[in-house]
Amino acid sequence: MNTETSMINMPSFKQPPYRFVPLEDIFEQSSEVKWLIEDYIPKQSIGMLYGPSGVGKSHIVLDMAVRIANGIPWCDNETEQGVVLVMAGEGNSGLSRRLKSIEKRHGIKIDEGRLFFSERAVGIDTEKGFNELIEAIEALVTKPDLIIVDTLSRHLMSSSENNNEDMANFINKLEQIKQRYDTTVLIVHHTGKNVNNGSRGASSIRANIDFSFKLSSFTIAGHSIIDLKCEKQKDASDKVPELSFDIVTVELDEFDSKRRQITGACAHACKVITGTEDNVYQAIALDSFASDKSEWQKKFLKMVDEELDAKVAPDTVKKKFRALVKELIDLELVEQVGKGKFKLRD
User: Fold this and answer.
1) Count of C-beta atoms within a 10 Å radius of residue 98
2) Which of 142, 183, 268, 276 is the most buried (most CB within 10 A)?
3) DSSP, res 193
4) Per-residue model confidence as pLDDT tens digits over 97-123
5) Cα dihedral sign for 70, 103, 119, 186?
């Protein structure tokens, strides 16, 4: 293809005319917030999910992507089925294992016609990269309902994430995409060196987006749990329940060249909520675990007596223990393997 033909086929991207509209047009707009994921991901918006390196960001957004593509609930919240594009900055390596893990772990078949992945990163902040992205979207039969940018840093080629003007311009590029396709854009980003200071880089990122979620991790008896907390919902309440996940290993129905079973991993929602008294008892129950129930209860009673300041009646603690055993089974942290016999799950 010669250069002249290529220029003719290049999609045009013109901003809508700048104008003022009368108040009656504003009042005709719906006051209801439309959701991709009820109460969490609004339609036609720009948002961010961020957390420290290795916390599980890509696993969480991939789980979201699959749920939206299939139109099935995410963490018991309704989704609206739609087309999802994942701008995978690290390429497609490992994606097959992750997607197959989601299918096997959750017993679903992913709708292959509604979920697409990029082969490489592009600089959305550059004219060339921006045009490449638009051209790729235009080539699709159905336009996207959600575009996931994973991660922000991998899709910047000429901008600094620490520069307010650069990041304001970057968000403006995403705003153009949102307006053109009536889509939602979700940026995956990192925390800085001090995780308590929020997302890394310029404050204009946080100031110019519509919603934001922070991921952090905590440990219960050596078991790592991911906590998702809403920090911002511009047009809705940000007082939504915190959610917890763990990353579970899944044995796939495939073997490598040495006949070893191939494993993958995926996010699994769990019912643990941070900062509650129940977490203390859960931690003690896991720390005192013994495969025999009677031995486990003895160790649990002893640890409660030694570690809790408030003295609790033995009968009350025994009742608490029985409830905790059931709870840990429901959370899939413990598995019953026989009468009075248990094991910790991986």
Assistant:
1) 18
2) 183
3) S
4) 999 999 999 999 999 999 999 999 999
5) positive
